[in-house]
Structures are given as C-alpha cells and as structure tokens.
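Entry 14. Ran structure prediction on the chain below.
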Amino acid sequence: MRKKEQIKGLTLPELQGLFVTNGHEKFRATQVFNWMYNHKVLSFTDMNNISKDLRATLDEQYSLITLEKVKEQSSLQNGTKKFLFKTQDGFVIESVIIPDNDRTTLCLSTQVGCPLDCKFCATGVMGYKKNLTAGEIFDQYLLAGVNYERPISNVVYMGMGEPLLNYEATVRSLSIFGEELTKGISLKKITVSTAGIAHKIKELADTGLKCKLAFSLHSCFEDTRSLIMPINKKYSLKENVKELRYFAQKTDTRITFEYVMLQGINDRKEDVQAIIKLCRSMPSKVNIIPFNSLAHMNPTGLSAELVPTSKKKIDEFADELRNANLTVMLRDTKGEDIAAACGQLAITGTEV
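Output, structure tokens:
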C-alpha cells in the first residue's frame, strides 16, 4: 500500500501546486485548505462540498494527521491546561493553554526539546531531539482547542524549542495562520519568541508576516547573558539589538523583552538602568517573569543553583522601570503545579 503524502503544513500555494501536479483541479486545493485550517477538520469525509468519489481518492493519497493527543492535565490553581502530543515518529511534545480575564493564550512548541541550554529553562535541560514540521506546529492549535471551553484568542511560539532555529517550518506555519482563509486567529494575535538568532530576526521581518516578536533578554550585559544563555556567545546582544530595531521599524510593532528574574544575577540597580537605556532605543515593553523551579528535571551546574528573586524585589524592580515611563507587565506564574509554567516544559520520559 502506497504511503500517504502528508499535506498538513503546506501553505496555500504549495497545496495548489501539489494538487495540480497530481491531476486535481486547483480550486480543490483551496477547498481542502479551507477545511484543514479554517474548519480544522481531521478527515476528508467531513469536507462536504467535495464529491464522495474525490474525497475517497484524496483520502487514499493524502494524510491530514500529524499529532496524537496523548494526555492533558489541568492546573488546580487557575485553569491552565497542559497537553502532551505524540508525533507520527514517536516523539512527545507539550503545549499549554493559559486562560486570562480577556484572552485565552496557547503556548505552542516548535522543536522537540531545545539545543540552546538556557540555564533557567527545563527544555534546555532536556536537550534537543528534532524540529517540528509546520503541520505539527499548526496541529497543536487545532487539537488543543478541541472541546476547550473558550476559543483560543492568542498564540505564542514560546513552548519547547527555539522557533528561529526551525525557521522554515515556523515561517510556513505563520503563513498558514496569516492566510485570509484561516479565520480563527490573525497574525496580530501571534507572538514569536526568540533567544536571539540575529540574522533570522531580520529575515522574519522581511517576510512581510506582521506577527509580534518577543526577545528573551534576561540580561543587558554580554557576560551575564552568555553565562545564563550560551547562545549569546554566538549571537551577541549587540548584534541582536541591531536586528530588533530593524524588526520594530519594518513591521511597525513593539518588541517585547522577556526577563526572568534571578536573584543576584539580573535583579540589581545596574540591570534596571541598562533595561531603561535599551527600551528607550526602540518601541518596546518589558515582560517580567518569576523564575519557576526546574526541580522536576533534576538539573546540575548553574541550573541547579538558580534562585528566584523575591516578589517584593520584583515589584520594586518593576516600579523603577515604570517610573522611567516604560510599559511593564508582571507575568503571574500559572500552571506550576503541573510543570506548565514559563520555562518548565520538558519531557522526562515519565509523561506518557
């Protein structure tokens, strides 16, 4: 039996080209695209404006399934829900839905694990396994939203992995979200988070896909940033800041600087002043994040030594930034009881 060709993850032009090559009319690809990404169906049987005979033919040729939902856990604290999905080749990833007053945010993954080894992140402790396909990225959105009590209003590429190290699939998935036929969410409600792959920030800006960008800052000092984020040794903060300014200007959006607070490392007076100077150099805002425990990963080295900044000091830190007329958001820890909080996503081998 011929193996079915996977079409989940193809953009509209790619799908149209494939259908024409395989002898199908071009408009049929548009119909299938609409069913896959707008109506979010998982079977050709449900595509009821296509004849039964053609649906049977398409089902013999193509596959629409990339992920299997394995498990879901709900936080007893605030309704945060974590999903475990298995890829067709047997890898497991995590995604999280975070409900808030006026929004419901899906945090999705772009890689199985992560190669960057950021010392405050469980995914970095886990290590890197593989890149996800655009279909696997999109299907987290599709499957997590099934039967959830509220529609997903925002998507953040902040789960497992570095999106810009899986650049092709990330951009392809953004292109799918950005198509007029994909009506569930707009690019204005999508944020891509990066630890700083400088040249890819510029490339993303030049795609014309006007998503938002969040930059994992965590220190404005090169030596400190290199200590807690080894990727800084390859792509320096100075190099990244240049491309962040380009992105903000090219897309007419504000950069979000993400800042995990680590006691004695990045919560000093000089850190406040450096953030103020940086933020005044481009349209931006600061997202302050409490450090969440990595104990479930049994970390070693610096990762095992990190201590969260106290809530009192975080509040004082944020107030100093606000007094300098910066826009500052204090992110609440949500889902820590199910290891779903910021920086906690990882597969230890005990989840499935």
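The domain at 5-63 is CATH 1.10.150.530 (DNA polymerase; domain 1). Will compare against last week's run tomorrow.
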